[in-house]
Amino acid sequence: MCLAVPGRVLGVEERNGTRMATVDFGGVVKEVCLEYLPDLQVGEYAIVHVGFALQRLDEESARRTLELFESLGMLQEEFGDPWEQAAQAGGEELSGEVRR
User: Fold this and answer.
1) Which is nearest to 85 in space by CA: 97, 93, 74, 95?
2) At 52, is the secondary structure helix, strand, or coil?
């Protein structure tokens, strides 16, 4: 599933002529393109879909949405643990121990 998830902007920088942001999605931090919201600032919230900030959002709405997604397990489904996802893709289950 590919959700549009609210996140808080932690930092903004220009990369190769494109404004990019580091965004926190309830503990998961990702890089996001600000092409559609070029005036988005550090500390503001936005709805992000497939790596693009699409719409500004107030803090209360963002927090409620993140809490709802978390309670439904949707954040784990969306972001997940990359090691667990890789193991599942390889047909293995993680049992808490390192496999070699």
Assistant:
1) 93
2) strand
Report the C-alpha gap between 25 and 65 in whole angstroms.
11
Question: Shortest CA distance to 34 belongs to which of 43, 1, 22?
Answer: 22
Q: Is position 68 within any domain?
A: yes
The whole domain housing 27 covers: 5-89
**Residue 47 forms beta bridges with which residues?**
6, 55
Each residue of 28-52: pLDDT tens digit?
Answer: 899 999 999 999 999 999 999 999 9
H helices of 24-91, in order, are 59-71, 74-78, 82-89
- Could you write out the DSSP letters of every residue in 4-28? -EEEEEEEEEEETTEEEEEEEETTE
pTM above 0.85, yes or no: no
